[in-house]
Amino acid sequence: MNIWQGFEPATLIALSICIPFIGAILVIATGKSPNLREASTLAIAALLFTIVLAITDLTFSGVGQRLDLIEVFPQLTISFSVEPLGVLFALVASFLWIITTIYAIGYMRGHNEKNQTRFFCCFALAISSVMAICFSDNLLTLFIFYEVLTLSTYPLVTHAGNDAAKKGGRIYLGILLGTSVAFLLFAILGTYSLTGTLDFKAGGIFDASHSKLVLSCLLVLFCYGIGKAAIMPFHRWLPAAMVAPTPVSALLHAVAVVKAGVFSILKVMIYIFGLDMLKELSTTDVMLYIGATTVLLSSCIAMTKDNLKARLAYSTVSQLSYIVVGALLATSIASAGAAMHIATHAVGKITLFFCAGAIMVASHKKNISDMVGLGRQMPITMTAFAIGAISIIGLPPMAGTWSKWYLVLGALEADKLFIVAVLMISSLLNIAYLLPIPVKAFFYPQEGQNTPWDKHDIKEAPLPMLLALTITSMGCLALFFYPQPLLDLINLIPGISTQLDGGR
């Protein structure tokens, strides 16, 4: 039974944004009782997911959903509306908030972290801003909550409070706010001056009357202004933020920040420029080359990193540019692949970060070179890592296979064979820097062992952490065998539905 049946669509949108905010207040109110605080967080996260499911049902039923709040300027209103791409992002974020909360409970307690109440509070505020980004009806609304997300996650990045955390926080805040002010704000102002509107519209809001040169410049401003997409050279904030606790890394890399960046780029390409207009702009190919370069260079850098979180950070930089490349290919099937990669990368990468945190809590190891033979002691964790790695690589039977398949098809449709080559080379690089980790953990002996199977005490991470990484690793499998719900939702996105036949 749908508990939200009978609620007005506008009410559901409001609740999806307000419920996490209420959750933040509850966290503060129950801060002196850790059990109650964490139970409240879990309950709010589960409640949010049911609301997003109700919104999803209405979307499939074709019911219009809109909420207008405040008219800031004439014809410029803080408004929210529901469209399929936003629903996809909201489903990913709300579901993974539940799993990340379970994981964080085990991590924060197992690692004896300080300031846990502040952590869970800022986490909830970040999810609230993510929901607002998902359902933004125009660029003004998106910009406001995009910045709120940056500010709400800053205390999470600097959670440790040491010099390294403060330095990482400065880089994080400096690059993300700097790109927004220097590029994104001017892109939005330029769009408004040309069209008189900032509304997202199927097919885009630009037409043949607008100067292609001006639009080409705007495209560059948007791509670099949305700094959370981590296109080189504005990517350093992401590795710098790895000083944060692992649940924060999971939030940054899978649930909220980076996905808000690539989601925003994809939404701007589809609903502001439109795929047809993108094909005519001179800078589309320029940004496509830069995105492809980011894919390869960040993969090469990842191979040089011995610290596991640093390697995963540069892997994320690479994987995000898959989505940027998919958007800039300006074909229906590539856009579908980019949209799907939001979900498939999320479950794969969050699994890897969950495993990295579990290894640190249970064995206090951070460097890959110290993890040789660890599979005998932590078989569940390292098996989950192997599953997440295979999904990120894009090999069957894991979720990442589908999104990479559609990206390759989109590149072929656009007659961009060099992008096909980039995707293939990148997958080989993924194999080179990810698969040796579980292989060495299972099949190489630790120092002092005769074989990798010498008996040692099994020392897995706390149960909540194991539960979370098991669920997400199973999600990698589930989305390979049952991608249909995602495909059905992607088929509803204007302009790309005719290219997909339910994955068949």
Automatic annotation (TrEMBL):
UniProt-listed InterPro entries: CPA3_Na-H_Antiporter_D, ND/Mrp_TM, Proton_antipo_N
Pfam families: Proton_antipo_M (PF00361), Proton_antipo_N (PF00662)
Membrane topology: Multi-pass membrane protein
Domain NADH-Ubiquinone oxidoreductase (complex I) chain 5 N-terminal: 75-120
Keywords carried by this UniProt record: Cell membrane, Membrane, Transmembrane, Transmembrane helix
NADH:quinone oxidoreductase/Mrp antiporter transmembrane domain segment(s): 136-429
Transmembrane segments: 12-30, 42-64, 84-105, 117-133, 169-193, 213-231, 251-274, 320-340, 346-363, 384-405, 417-443, 463-482
GO CC annotations, alphabetized: plasma membrane
Subcellular location: Cell membrane; Membrane
Superkingdom in the source lineage: Bacteria
Family membership: Belongs to the CPA3 antiporters (TC 2.A.63) subunit D family.
Alphabetized PANTHER family for the sequence: NA(+)_H(+) ANTIPORTER SUBUNIT D1, NADH DEHYDROGENASE
Name of the molecule in the record: Cation:proton antiporter
